[in-house]
Structure prediction request, 679 residues.
Amino acid sequence: MMLRPSAADHRVVGMHTGKIVTGFGLLMILPLVTSIVFAEWRTAVDFGIGLAACLVVGLGLQQACATTHELKRRHGLVTVSLSWVLATLLGALPFSLSGQMGSYLDAVFDVMSGLTTTGLFLIQDLDHISNGLNMWRFVLTFVGGQGIVVIALTFLFKGTAGGIYHLYSGEGKEDRLLPNVVQTARVIWLISLGWLAVGTAVLTAAALWLGQTPVRAVLHGLWVFMGAFSTGGFAPQSFNTFWYHSVVFEILCIIIFVAGSLNFAVHWAVWTGDRAELRRNVETRSFIVTLGIFVLLAAVGLARAGIYPDAMSFVRKCFYLLVSGHTTTGFGTVYSRALVTQWGPLAMLAIIGTMILGGSSCSTAGGIKGIRVSLIARALREDARRLLVPDTAVIASHYHHIKDRLLSETAVRSALLITVAFFVMHSVVTTAGVLAGYPLIEAAFDGVSAASNTGLSCGLISPAIPWGLKTVYIVAMWLGRMEFLAVLALLGWMWSVVRGR
Amino acid sequence: MRHRWLIHYLTAILVAVPSAALAAPVASGELIEHPEAWDGETITFTGEAIGESMVRGSEAWLHVNDDAYADASIASGAAPVGYNSGHAVVAPPEIAEVVRVFGDHRHQGDLIEVTGVFNAACSQHGGDMDVHAHAIRIVRPGAETPETLDRGRLIALALVALGAAVLAGRLVLVRARR
Prediction:
């Protein structure tokens, strides 16, 4: 029997959602200041409206729903989902006001893509957009990588226990770096800002060396870092990272997006002196093995296609795109359509494989995640061993993830459930693409890219696709980022409002 | 030998005609869709220079968009009609330096005609699909994009900001009373 939420329950959800929306709105100060610095007055007005609208909704909810009731598990998950819905709708305002979008749905698509670190976009005439609007795209993707709830926990929440943890875990992060969730959120921001400072400086220096003007070098250095570390894949120009034509820049990007795809707990272990964790962690090992397999597969496809004239070109293009896919970043150094016209189906399938698996848990990356891939592989190996040993033998598997752990039935079951859910979602988005009239391989490529929060495209996704398909992709990006649970909690909440007792 | 004058005349024309006239005019979309068909061919295409010229030693990288915004960007009032599309061009700096204005939010870049050799996967540049330009001509010089403020939007900003200020003030008062 489902219990209908009481007025007190709604107030708890409303008040905390209001706090998160307020925090999200304050982020618009960054693009607002950028617009003012570059004298982009129209854009500044758009962000002024967006910021004020977020404050009206956020502060209004906090006051209308003021309560002293404690935040519990079911409130936490619903709060996260509702916050994402409101943040996406409000964050789309400056996009829509800019005139660069075909519709409000397109603006919502881009905000969802940014917040979920997907990197697909429907914004038009990207090469002429204002610095303020570009800044907003990257703030969205950078903040989305850490989580909008994480930023709210860092600055706007007090307390340590109860539902606060469910706010944190509802965004697809479960590992606690420290016993206190709020401190964990702050450590995630410390790690990210540390990388931001170093990464931006290095990329800016590289951009200057590549011939960009100082102002553009700083902006591109910052934005490309944000797009890479968040494994988001947004880039300042329509050419994506193909703009730079530099192997050095590509290597720097790879280092940053691989770092972004690593579990924050691994970052924290390395920061606190345990460098061996990087080598021993089951997710790092899983990433290296699966990347090797898919690079090999793509190499066979590319060798058959015979497009690259020398080994250097071959390795450079193949490795960059495969790592970009596996970390669910979505940076590319080839034209989208070149995947179809030059790379061919086998290499595309290899990229699809990497996108499905994705990066590490508790990172900025999407996809099934390395920990689940490892647990399922180990469970299969354990079952195979059971068939070969006497019935009385006891078989136990261990794996290392921050500490040595015993492979448990519960962990395997949980990993399998989410994995099956991901495969179902990939099937649905692919079918939706085919139903809309696109070839299977292209529908699978862009559909999986959206659902795994990657952002690589073979050219299917464009402002011209039907609104129904855009909606499917928006929901898929959201479900993929939330890892289903928080979205299902919101749907359950709505159902219980209608049918509960 | 009666027709020697004719041979000289034709030779003079061939030398005088710029290489652009002999190159096949093509759009960037066609190059990306059918790269093998154009690989190694001398082509010419026209588009807006965007971003910047990145000069690296004996080379300069340009990006040229031949999309719907090459003549007027959305920032200058054009309607959104699709993505940007264009091509990467590499040229000697002395050829690239003719381009003065690059397209961005505040500028409509120079409209240029590029003539050069198309490479589906350039071995000199890490497999990039590019055009090695040997001639660039300005078709239409670029210009600054004027910015106008919408009065209705300013009024909307004032109203929403007032609402936010009232709510913020009320929250501060409630907290102060506690």
In short: Chain A has two domains: 7-260, 274-424.
